[in-house]
Amino acid sequence: MTRVRNGHDAHGAGVTRAQRAVLAALAAEGPFVSAQDLHAQLRGAGEGVGLTSVYRALQALADAGEVDVLRTPSGEATYRRCGSDRHHHHLVCTSCGTAVEVEAPALERWVRQVAATHEFAVDSHTLEISGRCRTCARD
Amino acid sequence: MTRVRNGHDAHGAGVTRAQRAVLAALAAEGPFVSAQDLHAQLRGAGEGVGLTSVYRALQALADAGEVDVLRTPSGEATYRRCGSDRHHHHLVCTSCGTAVEVEAPALERWVRQVAATHEFAVDSHTLEISGRCRTCARD
DNA sequence: ACAGCAATGAAAACCGTTTTCAATCGAACG
DNA sequence: CGTTCGATTGAAAACGGTTTTCATTGCTGT
Fold first, then answer.
1. Are residues A9 and A72 in the same domain?
2. Fewest C-beta atoms under 10 Å: which of A105, A112, B39, B69?
3. Residues in chain B closer than 8 A to A107 (CB atoms)
4. Which pLDDT tens digit goes with each residue over B37-94?
5. Which residues pair with A92 in a beta bridge?
6. Chain B CA closest to residue A98
7. Final residue in a domain of this structure, among B39, B55, B84
8. Gap from A5 CA to D8 C1', in Å?
């Protein structure tokens, strides 16, 4: 089997070294993290990956749908490797960043209906719920 | 009637010159606009308002709940003076920026319920639907 | 008038992200 | 092996939106 050189992989994930490193770091399935956090983390772990490459890898992975992107209220982009590849929304803890994935078929239906009422052709929609998870709830 | 000097106004809106200018420009009830757009617009109209003041005014007005803030996918903050002061969501046209306000009591209920299921104490939630309005739908 | 504090705005700092560009890597081919 | 050539990498610089700094201006109450 000839080794793949670029994104023509059967699977589309983790082709370049940076992408593999990022995916590995993200594999923990933890909270949403920013590119810079990720970079610091990789650096700390001895992984020699440049910040630029982290950004590029995240961008590529996000484009490929391998990771989910979330903008924090301050405008920073954060990333997470989600369990489901289906369309879903998040419950995000403002304190520790952990996220719970939720699907909401009823919501999706409602969105389509409202859009139709106002004669909008829907491109996309986002729903994010932020609060404190059980663990962080006790200030 | 003594003139008000600062935000201790009965109403909380448009106390400083910059705030008044911004509110006036936003009054058109049109699309969501960025701080810079607003600044250019005011400058064009002969209103001598500095960019810094526009930012400050928007921040104050947003804090006071006088205007709604929306982050574009690129991370830029855009503002709009909404018709309703009640909690609501938006249908936003990606082409012209126009927005339709929608209330969704059923959604609010659903959010609370989902949060409860996962033992989250909800702080806030956002739902934005983006697409093309009827006028812009024809490419 | 005058003191004092809020508002203003130009310029500089900030900060996350993207771009540039030269160096490096590595598969393919001879 | 050695060369070629496109892809990858990363340091540094550019970028763009936003915030901060700080000196100036303008009101307000005395």
1. yes
2. A105
3. 107, 110
4. 999 999 988 888 999 999 999 999 999 999 999 999 899 999 999 988 899 999 999 8
5. A99, A130
6. B120
7. B84
8. 10
